[in-house]
Design goal:
Blueprint: H1 7-17, H2 22-29, H3 33-41, H4 51-58, H5 62-75, H6 79-112, E1 118-125, E2 133-141, E3 144-151, E4 154-166, E5 169-176, E6 182-189, E7 199-208, E8 220-230, H7 232-237, H8 239-247, E9 250-252, H9 269-275, H10 283-291
Antiparallel strand pairs: 1-2, 1-8, 2-3, 2-9, 3-4, 4-5, 5-6, 6-7, 7-8
Helix pairs in contact: 1-3
Length: 306
């Protein structure tokens, strides 16, 4: 409802929404059109209004009737009070609009600031549905993404693609380097309000193969958690650290993949703070819960923190 809407404006909107004219409404309420006209324009507001009768004639629902009663009460209030309430409502309306604008443009702002640049460890259950968890690594630079999967330090396959933003979501679209045999899209929520990048959380969807006998010819999806492990300068200064991380990439049984935040990266306190994990909680158990693809919503795979 617009902050400045009066009782007369709201009544007029209700009448017109019922495909009635004000004359029709006046006839049904046994009220003179001139009286309704003065209410409509705000020139006259009787001390006692037939609100119950109006609600019956217009067949208002509970919310509509309650709002009509609120506006009638406001209409009888002193002018100074009405003006102040309108100012407050207008301010709240502007604040809601500002927050909406922030949500729409914040991700784009972060992209222009290269907020997402650097190296990320990514975790998801294998799309081959073999019960294993894949630890892979992504490098983001501006809007370009390089993604690698390794086993015992050897590259199994790699991808290149782009990072795009739409509203409050990040989309990473990847094409496999070995002859376009696989395409991947990763959709991530981007509005976590951290001073530095910590994690991204969402869903990975893969479409593979050009044959109906390929195990992933049909699209498959899995929850994904990406953990930021450092920027370009960090690993430029410590190339051996990057090599150590790359050697840990691969497919693991859930019982063998921990820790999810490698000890060579140092303290996991910042990640814990961002994930809102208490000191006594097990970080690995929290991550495993986030990666679980079971869902209480039948037929829908949801990446949520429940």
């Amino acid at each position: 409802m617009e902050p400045t809407m009066s009782l007369g404006d709201y009544l007029y909107r209700l009448v017109r929404s019922r495909n009635m004219s004000m004359q029709d409404f006046a006839d049904r309420c046994n009220c003179s059109p001139s009286t309704l006209s003065r209410i409509r324009t705000g020139k006259r507001l009787p001390k006692k209004l037939p609100l119950e009768q109006w609600a019956q004639v217009l067949e208002l629902d509970n919310d509509e009737q309650r709002h009509l009663e609120d506006l009638a009460m406001l209409g009888h209030a002193p002018e100074a009070l009405r003006r102040r309430l309108n100012e407050v409502e207008s301010h709240m309306h502007d604040e809601r609009q500002r927050r909406h604008d922030v949500e729409q443009h914040y991700a784009e702002y972060r992209k222009t600031q290269n907020y997402y640049d650097g190296y990320w460890l990514a975790y998801n259950y294998s799309l081959f549905n073999d019960g294993r968890i894949l630890r892979s690594m992504a490098h983001i630079k501006n809007d370009h993404v390089r993604w690698i999967n390794k086993e015992a330090g050897q590259i199994q396959y790699s991808y290149n693609g782009n990072l795009d933003l739409l509203g409050d979501k990040i989309f990473i679209r990847l094409e496999e380097d070995r002859g376009s045999a696989e395409y991947v899209q990763i959709s991530m929520h981007s509005l976590f309000d951290f001073r530095e990048p910590a994690f991204l959380y969402g869903i990975i969807t893969g479409i593979s193969g050009k044959s109906i006998r390929h195990p992933l010819s049909n699209p498959a999806a899995s929850k994904m958690l990406m953990i930021h492990i450092g920027d370009d300068d960090t690993f430029r200064k410590e190339p051996q650290l990057l090599e150590t991380i790359e050697e840990s990439l691969g497919n693991y049984l859930p019982s063998h993949i921990a820790p999810y935040f490698p000890a060579v990266l140092g303290s996991d306190k910042y990640l814990r703070d961002c994930l809102n994990i208490k000191a006594r909680e097990d970080l690995d158990a929290v991550v495993e819960n986030l990666l679980s693809n079971t869902s209480s919503r039948e037929g829908v795979l949801c990446a949520d923190f429940a």
